[in-house]
Each structure stands twice: as structure tokens, then as C-alpha cells.
Specification:
mainly alpha; globular
């Protein structure tokens, strides 16, 4: 069971790394804490919008994509601003 959890973690970290690199190649660094939190909030709101859908309308792939974007922007906040 631990091996499966490790495999899922490795896959998630690989996806997060790819999303981080995509974002850094398409957008300039965050310039302030206010900008950083605004970007994170925007991504969070998109994830929340997906969560609020009726269960029959939720798309697990879209939920994963939005969660990945939240995590990547939090990572970017750490790297760009701290």
C-alpha cells in the first residue's frame, strides 16, 4: 500500500513541476505578496467553482487540474517571494 501512495505522490509532484515550469515560461515572476496571494486566490476560486458543481457535473480531471494550479502558484509564491 505504501508503494502505491509513493507512486501517486511522485506522479503528483511530476505534474506540479510541469505546471510550475509552464507558468514560469508564460508569466513573469510575482512581484509582491499582494500579487502572489491574488494569483493563488484566483486559482483557488476556480477550484472552488468546480467543487460547487453538482456531483454529477464534476470532472475529476478538471478538479485535479485546478488543484495543481493552486499548488503551483503556492510553490511559485515560495520561490518568487520568499
Amino acid at each position: 500500500m505504501a508503494e502505491r501512495a509513493d507512486d501517486l505522490l511522485i506522479k503528483a509532484l511530476r505534474e506540479l513541476t510541469e505546471e510550475y515550469h509552464r507558468a514560469t515560461s508564460n508569466y513573469p515572476p510575482m512581484h509582491s505578496y499582494h500579487e502572489g496571494i491574488s494569483v493563488i486566490e484566483e486559482e483557488y476560486d476556480e477550484l472552488w467553482d468546480e467543487i460547487k458543481l453538482k456531483p454529477s457535473k464534476r470532472d475529476p480531471k478538471r478538479l485535479r487540474e485546478e488543484a495543481k494550479q493552486v499548488a503551483a502558484m503556492a510553490l511559485r509564491f515560495m520561490i518568487d517571494l520568499t
